Amino acid sequence: MSIQFLPRARAASVRSRRFRHIARALPLAAVLAWLPAQAQTGDAVHHAPEGEGAITVDGVRQAYRGDFSVKEIPQAITTIDAETLQQNNILRLTDALDLNASVVRQNTLGGLWDSFAVRGFAGDENLPSGYLVNGFNAGRGFGGQRDVAGIERVDVLKGPSAALMGRGEPGGTINLVTKQAEIGRTFGSGSLQYGSYDRFRADADANLALTDGITARLIGYYEKGDTFRDYVSQKRWGFLPSIGVALGDRTRLTYDFEWTRVEVPFDRGIVVLNNDFDTVPRSRFLGEPGDGDTVARATGHQLRLDHQFNDDWSLLVGASHRDTLLTGFSSDAEQTASRQKLYVDGHSLSRQRRSRRYDAEHSVVRAELAGHFETGSLRHRVLIGGDFDQFEYDNYFTRFRPPAVSTNPSDQAGYVIDIDNPIYGQYPLPATSVLTNRLDAQRSFGFYVQDQIELTERLQIRIGGRYDNLTLKVDNRLLAAASRYNSRKYERFSPQAGIVYELSDPISLYAAYGQGYRANIGADFNNNIFDPETSESIEAGVKLTALGGALTGTLSVYQLTKDNVLASDNNNPGFSVAIGKARSRGIELDVNGHLPGDIDILLSYAYTDAEARSGVNDPNFGYQILPGDKLINIPDHNLNIQVAKHFEMAGRAAQLGAGMQYVGERLGETGTDFTLPSHTLFRLFGSVDVIEGVELFGTISNLFDETWYASSYSSVWVQPGTPRTATVGVRARF
């Protein structure tokens, strides 16, 4: 089985053009390099055995932060660190983000990309969610769900950040900090684990000091196994090396490489008929095994030069390039009621058959200067930077669609499967026809400045702004030559302001305001390029430190609004339409740290009120969206609690912990009252050092085997959550 590929000569031409654009952007870094980019010091908290000092605080570089402690930043920031990831044996970014209540799951394209909302707002339903990698826009594309093997920690940067980050969601930004070569050290670890559904995984991480100034860190993983879904198995592997070079005492060069691959059948989940979530077992696969695997792969490069001029000024210059491809066939439930036989007899599911080839390239060049100076009695801490960002998305999409039920088609003509007694391969796989053949491109230059001014010992203000010049282009190859091309240019200034007041040593108050935008990629069915989303954000909160800094907490309130929101155009798959305005507001509480008695604690709660603010016809199913209607997959209440105890067992270090996640009811289909039920999941984890350098670990997820639903797009595309699973493994360190 194969799908149609684009002509090789044209593809080569496209790539050649892309690299020329990157080359033109390189002078941007040189121009900015003379500016005294990034002395970004934050707080890193590490566990230490009791009696040896419970907490150590080290300065670490943080993207877009500047030289500030967390309590000085007028923004809510939460970090999911390496210890927390390892405790829970988390393997995917999606599962890591579950630990923060401000982030909720969205439609994952059959489990093949990362899609999430922060503070109630997600991006384009037709694209995976974007994120930063080491401060660079590097998360766009179609490389499959991100594995955490190469991730040191996950930073959730909430609220208004447009002045620095520009083109993103107003709810917040996810920044992945990768495991990078640590110069001058040699250490490593490797693990083997086996879990439910015959899942096997092996991974290794070796940091090797080759010389005094050159270190290579080699990271790799391989995973294979079945799932709780019938006929759905998976295979994943990746190689994620990092090379660090010390160019003197004040300069460091770092190169990171990414090569990953995912092979898994496309899986839209289950159907829910008449709000009966027992319509089919949660294991039932309603696709077609004959479609084979969908393959997603990613190849990425990132190069960063970090130079400390002196104690006051530092510079970061860097570039990244990521190439992703997703390709394969799927058989999906038809969503339109007039074509769906299931609504007639209650068991015959009419299906579409689709093929996808999503080819994307994302390139970024950026430079940033960080430093501080004084004017009279005022101390200024500034960030000055600029970037070039280019994203190109080659979308080749084909489809077979069942005829209207009113024509009384045969089961074969409707590509029907019996949901009660599925017989796979009963009919020949229907041929598909081309529906989308389009190249979308975004290219932008941005410049920003931020100044945080200390007015008094306790009072600071932050002002900043960002200018962006954006060009959008569309080449719709299915149209006639005279109308296939379209382009638009935009200019945008995004201001921000904030204030921080230190009420006392452990307590600080803050407030922030910001505007921003996110470029909507592509064009509608008529080849009209969309206006960008625009947003406005306001937030206020209080930050608390206790126990000598061992325990930190943030309580925040916010309101976000945005215009020009897009939704998928179901009548024309692969296209989107603008649906208007949306608003989100809420309250959040995050507590993280180390308690007396060698106890780690994590608490994250969010109340989110996210709704449409304009009345439009939903393009997906023709339903009316009214002001006040909830946004899809956004619960009012979300809570995560985790406690872990460190102790000794037979003279060996050990830990035991438990966690709980509650996700409230949320809308499962836009413009309807179809609602996903709430769920509460419990988990256990533990580990013990059996001998020096060798650790035995285990986890149990969904301890009480609750039936739950991760996300939904419609009542016939519902993603069931994983039943109770157990994993045991061994980890060795050197």
UniProtKB/TrEMBL annotation:
<keyword id="KW-0798">TonB box</keyword>
<keyword id="KW-0472">Membrane</keyword>
<keyword id="KW-1134">Transmembrane beta strand</keyword>
<dbReference type="InterPro" id="IPR012910">
    <property type="entry name" value="Plug_dom"/>
</dbReference>
<dbReference type="GO" id="GO:0009279">
    <property type="term" value="C:cell outer membrane"/>
</dbReference>
<dbReference type="GO" id="GO:0015891">
    <property type="term" value="P:siderophore transport"/>
</dbReference>
<keyword id="KW-0732">Signal</keyword>
<dbReference type="GO" id="GO:0015344">
    <property type="term" value="F:siderophore uptake transmembrane transporter activity"/>
</dbReference>
<dbReference type="InterPro" id="IPR010105">
    <property type="entry name" value="TonB_sidphr_rcpt"/>
</dbReference>
<dbReference type="Pfam" id="PF00593">
    <property type="entry name" value="TonB_dep_Rec_b-barrel"/>
</dbReference>
<keyword id="KW-0813">Transport</keyword>
<feature type="signal peptide">
    <location>
        <begin position="1"/>
        <end position="39"/>
    </location>
</feature>
<protein>
    <submittedName>
        <fullName>TonB-dependent siderophore receptor</fullName>
    </submittedName>
</protein>
<dbReference type="InterPro" id="IPR000531">
    <property type="entry name" value="Beta-barrel_TonB"/>
</dbReference>
<dbReference type="InterPro" id="IPR039426">
    <property type="entry name" value="TonB-dep_rcpt-like"/>
</dbReference>
<comment type="similarity">
    <text>Belongs to the TonB-dependent receptor family.</text>
</comment>
<dbReference type="InterPro" id="IPR036942">
    <property type="entry name" value="Beta-barrel_TonB_sf"/>
</dbReference>
<feature type="domain" description="TonB-dependent receptor-like beta-barrel">
    <location>
        <begin position="245"/>
        <end position="703"/>
    </location>
</feature>
<keyword id="KW-0675">Receptor</keyword>
<dbReference type="Pfam" id="PF07715">
    <property type="entry name" value="Plug"/>
</dbReference>
<dbReference type="GO" id="GO:0038023">
    <property type="term" value="F:signaling receptor activity"/>
</dbReference>
<keyword id="KW-0812">Transmembrane</keyword>
<feature type="domain" description="TonB-dependent receptor plug">
    <location>
        <begin position="70"/>
        <end position="173"/>
    </location>
</feature>
<dbReference type="InterPro" id="IPR037066">
    <property type="entry name" value="Plug_dom_sf"/>
</dbReference>
<keyword id="KW-0998">Cell outer membrane</keyword>
